[in-house]
Amino acid sequence: CCLPEAEQAVWAHASPVQVGPVMTHLPNHTDHLIHTLVHGLRWEQFSPIRWVADSVTIMRQAGSGGVDWDRLIDRVQFCKVVVPMRLGLHYLARQYDAPIPSDVLFQLDRIRVPRREFTEFRVKAIRRTPWRRLRFHWYNYQRLRSQIDTSVPIFSFLYYLQLRLGLPSLRQLPRAIAQRTPSFRD
């Protein structure tokens, strides 16, 4: 979620923690769980299966009342990440007996999710060919565009790609895609 309000909400609910001589903040259990699940369910060349252990550990360390389930439901709707949360939490409850209230799973199942969000999740959760990688970037660009400024012309996607790939000019874009640069590898 690219909205400034999303990040502000995370830090507004963060807990102070001391790391050595430095005082900093740590996202609370709810935000940490959302982050872990959403990023863990994305496809990576080397499977980030650690999301399972991390998620279960977060929930168990939080204990009863540590994860604010109502806030989690609100946050995932606001950030448009209902699909990965729904799939991830159901998986954890079924396979690992994770301490997830059944009414939370029921509420997530009842949320109406636009088809576009299902498609975006599918693109981000499967192995990336150059075409899928282009679609992956398209969905990220669309999120930015819809959350920041919808008046930005669609053709600015090319400039977005140029910046994401670190290319000095747009003329290099077709070659970068055809040669399967690191951002366009499987």
How would you describe this structure to a colleague?
The protein has helices spanning 4-12, 29-40, 50-62, 69-78, 82-96, 102-110, 115-125, 130-148, 156-165, 173-178, and strands at 15-19, 22-26. With 186 residues, the chain is mostly helical. Strands 1-2 form a two-stranded antiparallel sheet. The radius of gyration is 18 Å and the shape is globular.
H/E series, N to C? HEEHHHHHHHHH
Number of strands: 2
Show unreliable segments: none
Strand content: 5-15%
Given helix and strand content, the structural type is mainly alpha
Brief summary:
This protein has helices at residues 4-12, 29-40, 50-62, 69-78, 82-96, 102-110, 115-125, 130-148, 156-165, 173-178, and strands at residues 15-19, 22-26.
Task: For the structure shown, list the relevant keywords.
186 residues, 10 helices, 5% strand
Sequence-ordered SSE layout with sheet pairings:
Elements: H1 4-12, E1 15-19, E2 22-26, H2 29-40, H3 50-62, H4 69-78, H5 82-96, H6 102-110, H7 115-125, H8 130-148, H9 156-165, H10 173-178
Antiparallel strand pairs: 1-2
Helix pairs in contact: 2-3
